[in-house]
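Putative S-adenosyl-L-methionine-dependent methyltransferase structure dump, as promised
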Amino acid sequence: MKQKSTDSPHDKFKSSSSNNLFFLLLLLLTNLITLFISSSLFSCSYKSLSTTVEETATIASDLPPEFLAFTSGQALPFGFNTNFDSDTIYPPAGKACTLFPDELRRYMSYKVNGSCPDDELLAQKLLLKGCEPLPRRRCRPASQPEYTEPYPLPISLWTTPSDSSVVWTAYTCKNYNCLVNRKRNEKGFSDCKDCFDLQANEKSRWARSKGGGLDFSIDEVLATKPRGSIRIGLDVGGGVATFAVRMRERNITIVTTSMNLNGPFNNFIASRGVVPLYISISQRLPFYDNTLDIVHSMHVLSNWIPTTLLHFAFFDVYRVLRPGGLFWLDHFFCVGEQLEEIYGPLIKSIGFNKLKWVVGRKLDRGPELREMYLSALLEKPLKNSW
Ligand SMILES: *[C@@H]1O[C@H](CO)[C@@H](O)[C@H](O)[C@H]1NC(C)=O
Ligand SMILES: *[C@@H]1O[C@H](CO)[C@@H](O)[C@H](O)[C@H]1NC(C)=O
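C-alpha cells r here:
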C-alpha cells in the first residue's frame, strides 16, 4: 500500500497516480481494441433495417438476444444526422455488462411486453459490478398490486410512507416498521441503519453545528456564499435524503443519489417528495459542466473506493460545479496516515479553494483502528477555474 518512505506525501501520490495512469492507458488500449473488433463485427448488422434479433444473436451467441436488440446499432429512420455525425445510434449499456454473461442473461430474459422478473437484487449487483447503466428492458417492473398514493407535501417530508409503496422482495425487512426499529433489533452492520427513523437522529442532522468540529451546519455553509446564490445541487450517496429535505426548507433543490442497499432508499426518498437518482459512485454524473451550485457527500466518498476511481470522481464533482460552487465533503474517512499521504494531497490537487478543513478521529469502532475523518468545505474558483 505504501510507497518508498523517503517520498514526500505529494511524491507518493504522484508516483501512485503514474502507476495508475499506466494501467488506465492499458485499459483504454484494450477497450479501443474491443471497440474496434466489436464495431467491425456489428458493421454488417446495422446496414440493413430488416436485420432481426436472431441474426445478430448468432454473431455473439453468448449474449442474450434482448441485450443485442437494445445495444446493437440502429439505423436512424431519416438517415444521416449532422448532430450525431452518423446515420446510426448505439443505445448505451455499461461496458462491463458483457463481462458477466450469466447474470446478464438472467437479467435480460423476460417476455417482451410482459412483466419483468422481480429481480432487484440481481439487477443492483450487476449494476454495482460495473454494468452501469443497466440496459433498458421491454417489460413492466415488479410493483405492489395495490399502490397507495403518497402523502401530500409538506407532510410527506417527515412521515414514514405506506408499506404498499415498496416491493420488499430484495430486503431483509418486509415493512417500514422493521426498518425504523432495526437499529435496536438487528445485529451487525447495515448501511444507514438508523436512517429510516425520521424522529431520531435524522431530525437534527445538519441543523446546527457542534462548534468548530466535523459537523458543519447547513446554515454555516450557506453563509460562506452571497445570500440566495446556492439554489440547486446534488447529494452523493444521500441515505434517506434528509439533506435534500433540509435544503428544500430553504428553497434549495437537491437531487440525491442512492442505491437500495438492503432497504428501499429510492422509494423512501421519492415518497418524502424529493428526487432520488439511482446511480452508483462509478458513473459519470448526469449533469452538464459548470452547472450546480453545491455538491454534498457524507460518508460515501471514502477509502473503500479505489484511488483512481476516486480521483475521477472528485474531478467529476469539480466539472459539474459552477465556478464559485461549493463541494462539501462531509466525514470522509480513512485510516491513520492515509489522509496525509494519499487523500489530502489527492483532494488538494483537484484545484478547489479550501474554505474549511477539519480533521478528527473516528472512534465509533474503537481507537485502535486509528480511523480518521475529514470534513472539508471546498469552493471551485470563481475565476480561472479551467
Ligand atoms: C402488450 O401488453 C398489453 C398489456 O398486457 C396488452 O394490452 C397489449 O395488447 C400487448 N401488446 C402487444 C403488441 O402484444
Ligand atoms: C421559500 O419560498 C417561499 C415562496 O416563494 C417563501 O414564502 C419562503 O419565505 C421561502 N423560504 C425561505 C427560507 O427562503
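The chain has two domains: 58-73+91-142, 155-379.
lmk if u need the other ones
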